[in-house]
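At this stage, I wrote out one protein's amino acid sequence and its backbone structure tokens, and that material follows here:
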Amino acid sequence: MKIANDKVNLDEILKSLFSTSDKVLINLLNGIFDENFREDEVSISIANNEFIGQNFDIIIGDKFFEIGDFNGKKAYFHLEFQTKNDSTMVIRMFEYGFKKAAENSILNAKNGIKTIYFPKQKVIFFEENKNIEDSLDLNIVFPDDKVVLYSVGVMKYWEFTDEDLINKKMYPLIPLQLFNLRKELKKAQSKNDIHMIKKLSYTARDLAERISNESKDLFDKHEILGEDFHKMLLAVNNLIQYLNRNYLNDDRLEEEVTIMTKTLYDPEVEKRGIEKGIKQGIEEGIKQGIEKGIEQGIEQGVEKGRNMEKIKNAKKLLDVLDDKTISEKLELDESIVKSLREEASSN
């Protein structure tokens, strides 16, 4: 990806979003390349993206994926991310594709002829530009005047809404809806249009909340894993930080979005604590060797997980509420609250 001062930040965000769980990555490639791979029928891995250039320098592509089925058949996919239109992009794509094809060339033992297989390739352009075509095309002319058209598909990200991305199961791309605001922000900034910048700040806040809630909904429906949910919320925070520090300069925006995403994610952390308590309870029950022990262990584990979270919250409220109120709000025995207060006082 070719970006100016914001290159490292955006590259890191994309790197995180494209390192999600196998199920999510397979669905993502299905959506981008119109494939129909099934998670239970294939495996996916990140493939090498570094190659030796013609001047013995290292050339690095953005993302290469390898998908293999249980019969040993493999397919390769290549994605490049761009924010700007670039007339040299098709040459670079051909070079990346050829390097990957040569890396995976196959020799026919019978006739001694090598065959190279280009990966399926696509360029995702993130920032709207009317000059960007639906494909990048290159005519390759051989010495016998035979002409071969090399063509790479283009995904114009700005044409997709968050609803479109959800419908096509391209979940990791949802947080980047925030990046669509950059073009308008740059325009407003160049005109010093304070009113428009303030308006776009509210838009960014609302969009961040909507994307975060959509991510939570996907998690609740088991479409994404907890680690995927976390990476998507992290991307929302990082993109808000990027937009705010480069264009918006809203003192409250970053804090409000951080609190909002934390509010969504923290209950899931609590749930994990309860699930861990259940697991421990099951293990204790198994040691007892009886079903009753397992049942009691599960109940104790659940209760232990919940009480740990209640105690944690009770400690935070000691300075602002009395023991009885804390006990009622958290449904925690008042004697426990009193013990926590005594412990805090002694410290």
Q: What stands out?
A: The first strand starts at residue 42 and ends at 46. Strands lie at 42-46, 50-52, 58-60, 63-69, 74-82, 106-107, 114-115, 120-125, 135-141, 147-156. The chain has three domains: 1-159, 174-250, 265-346.
